[in-house]
Amino acid sequence: MPGIAMLLPNIELLQIAGEICKDHSNVIICKRTLNENVEADAKEAVKMGASVIVARGTQAERIRYTVDIPVVDIVWTAQEIGLTILKAKEMIKDTYPVIGIIGLKSMFCDTVHFETLFHAKIKTFYYTSIEEKESMFKEVDTWGADMLIGAQDILRQFGYLNIPVLPVESTEESVRIAISQAETLFSNNEIKRRNESKVNSLLDSMFNGLIQIDSTGTIVMMNRITEGILNKGQEEVLGKNVKDIIKDINTDLIHQVLNSPRESFSSFLNVNGRAMVMILSPIMVDDQITGAYLSLKKISRNDEIDYAIQEAERRGGFVAYRNFGDICYTSEKMSRLIEQAKLYSQSNTPLMIEGQTGDDRESLCQGIHNYSLRKNGPYVMVSMVGLSQERQMELLFGSGDERRNSQRVIGALEKANGGTLVITGIGFAAASTQSALCRFIRENTGVQLGNGEIKLLDVRLIVTSTESLLQMRKNNTVTFTFYYIFSGLVLRLPPLSERREDVVNFVNLYLKRYTQRYSRYQVLTDEAMDYLKTYNWCGSALQIERFIERMVLTIEKRTIKKHIVEGLLQEMYPDEVFEEGNLAVKEESMDAYEILLRNTLLKNSGNRNATAKDLGISPTTLWRKMKKYGITD
């Protein structure tokens, strides 16, 4: 049971406290402690439930360095010091004696007017550290006092001066004051402890994980659910920065929430392989952000879809679900690109992304939006491919009441207000469409409402193309003004042919996905993987995914060798041309075996023995096959 412990230096104080404590049920320990035992007695008191300790002088100071609970000092009252001074005057028998009062500073009350009150020369000597205590001895020695009064333990150290000493008499007053202060502290601690218990019980009964961080991002609290999510105990987490515990967390967004007031922020997060929804809310005290709460909810695939639908409804259907973490890569080129994209995401300047169509480009666009201050705004994507100039303008800028039976069409720019608009196939945009976009960017012309008013918009523009901006300018695909507006921030997404190591990542990713989906157990040989790694994937990761799914569905063998991969690629993409001396031929006229035969010869530079070995046939059979298909040396 929690309570107050009184650790007292002498029998006199113990007897006074013993009587007073009878009226204070919160005092659970009242005992005398010797100087050599004070630390051990304090620790034992804490073990027995003490949440406040009452002590005096140097013992109180030593206890403060030993335990982490409040310590209340028993301070000499004016009454106690006054009674001792009167007694000292009787002993000295001088009309105006010189009296020194010695002790630890925390033991003193106000003695400013004592000389007037007691008609004596009085000086206080106090110390707060060992160094001050030694200098105090020298000062007392040279001062020339008729008598010294103070605590017994300190007075004993002045025996060598041959100056009379007198301990300060203790009364009930100082003990009652100390107990009263301790009671107040105890009550406050109990209220705090009960409130914390209620809060902790509430937090532990929650189905969500909850983490509290301070203004520096340091974790100061978490509930039991969070321990299970992180697979870490509180001792491993408290006092650590949140970014060191949750590696996938977006530290820039944490910084934004801690430094600019926002109601809340939500995002998907991956923690130890589990999909999570994270809600981040700032903690405001006196209009100052002192920290934030992070709520973590485990989600199943259905939960994730439901959450996405809710977010889509909240933002009018325009939501970016992907982040930079969804991009599959290990190559240095992609690593540099993503770091550059993170920097560009902090700008509002129009951005150009050059690269093949596919998941990487889409994830890059969404990642830039979700990494920016516009994350909670809409994310809209439109394409210029195959549209007339009139339809492009309507798609982007909308139309007034005079069109479509007086029904106003809301354009993509207005839908993306406060967020990001991605325009794909920008090379197909008409010159007039490009000029209108340039005016919108440079002059913030906004869009015209049906009543003739102009609505100003706040939109970040991202445009994409498979062709480089420079090449489009050389081909006059984009206007002069458009080129210079978008040439400031350009990201070039490297093709897979420039990052072969990423091909392996995609193959492994999709192989795992589709073997699990279709309950297959297939593995690629090293030779097959090497072939896929060097293959020219013109369709980027999208082509890899479609190929892997087809392979998993149709190939019945568990171990997939190189020749199987080659044959399937030729079957799926027969329009490719292979050129190597006299082996050059259009594949569209070949059957699967002819394609395999020609590719194997290509690989072995026409060496028949090596080709026959790879195909598992004899050199004679190989010669017959070559003759059949008209392949010459």
3D structure, described in words:
- The protein is α/β, with parallel strands linked by helices.
- Helix 21 (500-517) crosses helix 22 (526-534) and helix 21 runs parallel beside helix 23 (540-554).
- InterPro entries: AAA_lid_NorR, Homeodomain-like_sf, HTH_Fis, P-loop_NTPase, PAS, PAS-like_dom_sf, Sig_transdc_resp-reg_PrpR_N, Sigma_54_int.
Which features does this protein show?
AAA_lid_NorR, 27 helices, alpha/beta, Sigma 54-interacting transcriptional regulator, 24 strands, 5-stranded parallel sheet, elongated, 18% strand, ATP-binding, PAS-like_dom_sf
Largest beta sheet: strand ordering = 10-9-13-12-11
Strand content: 15-25%
- Which secondary-structure class do the elements indicate? alpha/beta
Largest sheet: 5 strands, antiparallel
Distance N to C terminus: 97 Å
Give the helix proportion (percent range): 40-55%
- Unreliable runs: 577-589
Global Rg: 41 Å
Q: Averaging pLDDT over every residue, what do you get?
A: 81
